[in-house]
Amino acid sequence: MSSSPTTPHSLDSADDPVLYHEKLRATPWMWLLVVLFGVLGYMVLAPINVAAGIGSAVVLALITVAILVGMGSEIIVTKQFLQVGRAGIERRFVGNVTGYRGDDAFEQRGQKLHGLAYTNLRSWASPVVRIQITDERDRTPYWLTSTRNPEQLVDALGGAMYARPEDLEDENIPDWLREERETQQAQQRDDSEGHTPTDSNTD
């Protein structure tokens, strides 16, 4: 299976129980937008016609609700299958899994994001998990999904949280994650050594 939209796998069966399930729904404060847009809709037309103002408020509120509901998604992990938003894949095609928080998550969302990666990102859940896809028929190198519980998600997928350079001596870090981080550091050193600063002073 690939990163294209799929029909959800048969979940929580006796042979394939759910190991992790998360609903990425909008946070409570975002639902205040329903009230805000409703009030704005009323204020725009109420001075002209009260009935039109009420109608505008109702329409804008319903549109906002539909948008917020549509922005929600689910992450479901079973022993054999992974569902992230609209995409699903068999676990045998899942490679290394790494969780990120803080600045590291921000970089994965931005400057380090691969152009072919499948993303399931939500602004109200800043941590992310990167899931490598090993299916040779799939051009997608990895999935990147928002999650409120990166530690639990990577644990369900047999992965690990991202390790900073100062944490590489931790014995609990998987060898593959340590090697990946060391490779990144080596590449950064090579890039730094190959860059020759230019004199920007002018008379």
From TrEMBL:
Transmembrane annotation, as ranges: 29-48, 54-77
Tree of life domain: Bacteria
UniProt cross-references to InterPro entries, sorted A to Z: DUF3093 (IPR021443)
Keywords: Membrane, Transmembrane, Transmembrane helix
UniProt-annotated stretches for the region Disordered: 165-203
Compositional bias of kind Basic and acidic residues: 176-196
Protein name from the UniProt record: DUF3093 domain-containing protein
Native source organism of the sequence: Auritidibacter ignavus
